[in-house]
Amino acid sequence: MDDFPAKIADFLESIATRIRLLTVERVAGWARWTAVGVVLAILGLLMAIFTLVAVFRLVAELITVEGAYGLFGTVFVIIGIVLWSQRLAKAEEQEPVEQREL
Question: For 29-54, how does the pLDDT look when each residue is reduced to its tens digit (9 = 90+)?
Answer without folding.
Answer: 899 999 999 999 999 999 999 999 99
